[in-house]
Each structure stands twice: as structure tokens, then as C-alpha cells.
């Protein structure tokens, strides 16, 4: 039996350095569970490490991908496993999900409830968990909230759950005009990123900014946010760093999901998903744009399109 996987063996543009390689499927190691992958989404957190942006903590060769949905096909003898063959699971914190088979530690594997569809489950980790944890650390109740990159998947969940948690107001800042209607449909007030006067006025009335952009936008927001406010930086989609302006009264907080994972126990980890699944049942998620794994380059090209309306997904 063979397995195909998307490897990067050096850093660079994902289009240039990813390669679909096929090799014999090795025997399953003791203590692990083998999962046949069904589908995996494309997220910024999947692609950015391939460029070398995080070379201080991860290096090639690696199989790409951090989340996805699969079905258990084999359980090694003696594995401490509460799962069964044929069960749908998220094989997380393993050795790359952009491959036909993932061998994973069952302690970090997450069972998918029967009433959760494949379309929800395959993207049930990175964006939902990040949004949920941020709102747990920085509660939205009675706060005026601003979300940048508001057309992104994580931002969409931040908007929905901040409103559900009783935020006084929620504004979403967008770059591409086609995003405006989507943001408004989620219940937020949409603000054009190019409208600096409106952003400055908004910032002056804001309690918490959840920022995935950085760069000039973050600097403008920080320069006008009031005393006691917070900017939570959880991404850098602009590719530009930023610093606290001299006149700033707000505080900068960094959020990286991996920081929370370093100390979490398997029991607490499983409990997080017990709380996430009910929220995801009722959440609005963008439609999927499905690509066969052999067409991975087309999926990345679609991912890079400004204003795209779908979530690109690799199907195995």
C-alpha cells in the first residue's frame, strides 16, 4: 500500500516548494492510530510556515497541513485508545494532514459527533479554537469590539461569538469591497480599510481590537484607541511588523494558538472541543471550494485570490 503527501523540503513560496510525493506506507508504530484523511482546509497557518516565516521553531522537511478530517483505519496493539475503526476524527497535533494517511497519538485525536457534518468538522480546529480562546481571555460582553481582516474565517467566528456573548457593538474592517455584505450579514458594522478617518473615529470608541493584519492598520488603530483598551494581535496578514506609537494609550497583547497548546493537558484539550462543537453547529461558515489533492496548486492559487468567497479544501 502507498500513501501520497504534500512535502516541502526547503522554504519558499508554497507553489514553488510543495511537491506531492508517493511512497510505501510504513507499518503503524506502537501507541498510534492510523487515520485515512478525507479532507483538509487551507489556512494561513498552513501556508505561512512553508515560507520560512517561523524558521526559528519549524524547519523542513515537513508534510504540510495542521488540520483536517479523517476516518480511523487501524489501531496499533496496546494503544490507549477510546476510538474505534471507522470512526470520524480530527487527527490533530500529528505529522501533517496534507496526506492520505496520518498516524496520530490518540490523546490529541478529537472525535467528531454524529450530528456534525463533514463540512463543519474538517475545519473545526484552528480558526474556531483560536476565536473561542481569544474571547475567553478577552471577553466581549458590554465591550465595543473591532475585528480586522473581517472577511476571514477566524474573524467571522469572532464577530458571531462576540455578538452572541453580549458585545455592546462589533465593527469589522475589510479590504475587499465584496466582503462588506458578508460582514453585515453576520451582524457587524462594516468599515472600509481605506477609510482612515472612519477608522480613527472608530478606534477612539473601541475597547478591544482583534487584529490579524498588523502594519499600518494596527498603527493607526493604536494611535487612536483610548486608555484601558487592548489590541490583540493574532496574525500579520500584511506581512508588516508594527510598534506601539509614542502617543498610544492602548495595550498590545499577542495571541498565538501554539502558546496555549504547550501547557494544555489531553483532558482539558478534549474539553475544549466538547464546548466548541455546539457553537459550530449554529455558526455561519463560508462555502467550501473543493480540490482534489492532485490539484493542490490550483487550491493555493484560489486561496490567494483577493475577495474569494469560498474556503479552499483538499480532498483525498
From TrEMBL:
Keyword flag Transferase: no
Keyword Oxidoreductase: yes
Protein name: Enoyl reductase (ER) domain-containing protein
GO molecular function, one term: NADPH binding
Keywords: NADP, Oxidoreductase
SUPFAM superfamilies xrefs: GroES-like, NAD(P)-binding Rossmann-fold domains
Enoyl reductase (ER) domain boundaries: 13-314
Superkingdom in the source lineage: Bacteria
InterPro entries: ADH-like_N (IPR013154), ER (IPR020843), GroES-like_sf (IPR011032), NAD(P)-bd_dom_sf (IPR036291)
Amino acid at each position: 500500500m502507498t500513501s501520497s503527501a504534500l512535502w516541502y523540503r526547503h522554504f519558499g513560496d508554497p507553489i514553488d516548494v510543495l511537491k506531492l510525493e508517493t511512497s510505501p506506507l510504513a507499518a503503524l508504530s506502537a501507541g498510534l492510530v492510523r487515520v485515512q484523511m478525507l479532507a483538509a482546509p487551507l489556512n494561513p497557518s498552513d501556508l505561512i510556515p512553508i515560507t520560512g516565516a517561523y524558521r526559528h521553531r519549524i524547519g523542513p522537511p515537513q508534510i504540510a497541513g495542521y488540520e483536517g478530517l479523517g476516518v480511523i483505519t487501524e489501531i496499533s496493539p496496546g494503544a490507549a485508545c477510546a476510538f474505534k475503526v471507522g470512526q470520524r476524527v480530527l487527527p490533530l497535533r500529528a505529522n501533517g494532514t496534507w496526506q492520505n494517511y496520518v498516524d496520530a497519538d490518540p490523546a490529541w485525536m478529537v472525535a467528531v459527533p454524529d450530528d456534525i457534518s463533514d463540512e463543519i468538522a474538517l475545519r473545526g480546529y484552528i480558526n474556531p479554537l483560536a476565536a473561542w480562546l481569544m474571547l475567553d481571555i478577552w471577553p466581549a460582553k458590554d465591550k465595543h469590539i473591532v475585528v480586522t481582516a473581517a472577511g476571514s474565517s477566524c474573524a467571522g467566528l469572532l464577530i458571531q461569538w462576540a455578538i452572541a456573548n453580549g458585545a455592546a457593538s462589533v465593527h469589522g474592517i475589510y479590504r475587499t469591497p465584496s466582503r462588506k455584505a458578508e460582514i453585515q450579514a453576520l451582524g457587524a458594522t462594516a468599515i472600509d480599510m481605506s477609510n482612515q478617518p472612519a477608522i480613527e473615529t472608530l478606534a477612539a470608541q473601541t475597547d478591544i481590537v482583534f487584529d490579524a493584519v498588523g502594519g499600518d492598520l494596527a498603527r493607526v488603530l493604536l494611535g487612536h484607541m483610548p486608555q484601558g483598551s487592548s489590541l490583540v494581535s493574532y496574525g500579520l496578514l500584511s506581512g508588516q511588523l508594527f510598534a506601539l506609537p509614542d502617543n498610544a494609550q492602548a495595550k498590545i497583547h499577542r495571541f498565538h494558538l501554539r502558546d496555549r497548546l504547550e501547557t494544555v493537558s489531553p483532558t482539558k484539550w478534549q474539553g475544549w472541543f466538547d464546548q466548541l462543537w455546539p457553537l459550530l453547529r449554529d455558526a455561519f461558515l463560508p462555502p467550501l471550494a473543493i480540490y482534489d489533492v492532485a490539484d493542490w496548486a490550483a487550491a493555493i492559487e484560489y486561496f490567494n485570490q483577493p475577495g474569494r468567497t469560498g474556503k479552499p479544501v483538499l480532498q483525498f
